[in-house]
Amino acid sequence: MTLSIVIHRPESGHAGSPPDAEAEAMRLAVRDAVWEIADAHWTMGSDAILVSTDLSPDYMLSHFRRALARRGFSRTGLLLVTGVGPRAAWSDLPEEAEGWLKDVLA
To answer: From CA 71, how far away is CA 75, in angstroms rounded?
Structure first.
């Protein structure tokens, strides 16, 4: 399996930003869509999820966009999917997250 990071930030920081409840519903749609494609993932925070899957970032982005559209959202907000290479570096992660990353990248 390969590791990807998914960054999703529904808030755009301008007057058209979604209300908090809508932004949370958008986050939930993306998190649910992650479960559809990968059992192995690690939520780093409300805006970032590490996902272990062999699906391409392009396919994953399309999957998340469709998941948001199915729930009635016409916009995605910031949505970035990129691969994480074996030379990834990190600091100050919880011990279980560090172990999970080492297993996934092995």
So the answer is: 11
CATH code, 80: 3.30.70
pLDDT tens for 65-81 read 999 999 999 889 999 99
Percentage of the chain surpassing pLDDT 70? 92
> Residue 54: helix, strand or coil by DSSP?
coil
- What is the C-alpha to C-alpha distance for residues 6 and 32, in angstroms, rounded to an integer? 13
Range of the domain at 40: 2-105
Residues 70-93 as b or e (16 or more Cβ within 10 Å = b): eeebeebbebebeebeeeeeeeee
The pLDDT of residue 12: 52
Which pTM value belongs to this model?
0.83
Number of domains in the chain: 1
Counting Cα atoms < 13 Å in the Cβ hemisphere of 76 gives 16
- Is residue 77 a contact partner of residue 11, using CB atoms and an 8 Å limit? yes
The residue whose two tokens read 């959202």 is: 73
